[in-house]
């Protein structure tokens, strides 16, 4: 195959490599090139079904174009579209007006983000997290701060939880869990390979896996025992990749902590009381706090 730079867009690759594609692969490539907006919103299976070809043909086409698979080509399509279409986001006006408009848009979309949750699956996930011997929260990339916040809030509410930051340490820790434990995996795309490896390690150890993700169809959903799909506050997969918002997940996880703590009854209330005592003991005012001065500094 001819040398293709990493910066080459899918459209460039299709044009440059089309002569080396088989008939089915060429059909897939031309469909992607003709309707990139449609392709970027499709899974590999959905694209295959729409073309009447096997999923393996889509994956093989991706690899012929220089990508590891469909997730990588999908991201490249989103990047191609972002670079080729002028940004028209937000109303014309001041930055403050745009800020207010964006907040209002998110607020309107948030109730819809819970539309894919089912009562039975949600209740089972809450019960598992509440009663587990250990809870390990894992995430990588832009989802990592959400998992860390979730673990800290659970711990503050009397439901101790762990968050491991290093990706390899996540896999090691997950492999040492047991069937009495729960792993909570947070991934907007549901395709983060580092997170998937940790989930796989947990499953092999017999651990119950709860996934928090944005898309109903993803490798993470396939691996999870309970998949809590919280739709993105953006309108599409492409928009989610470009702006990488985790607003819906942040709001959901914040509310989920309250539900779990309430299920713990008096223990949860006692933990909250302890937290408030610690917070109060560490608050200061300008009269009582004396900042550290550098040597030789005088006022």
UniProtKB/TrEMBL annotation:
Domain SIS residues, every copy: 125-266
UniProt KW keywords: DNA-binding, Transcription, Transcription regulation
Statement: the UniProt record of this protein carries the keyword Oxidoreductase: no
HTH rpiR-type domain: residues covered: 8-84
Protein name according to UniProt: RpiR family transcriptional regulator
A biological process from GO: carbohydrate derivative metabolic process
SUPFAM superfamilies in alphabetical order: Homeodomain-like (SSF46689), SIS domain (SSF53697)
Organism annotation: Propioniferax innocua
CDD domains: SIS_RpiR
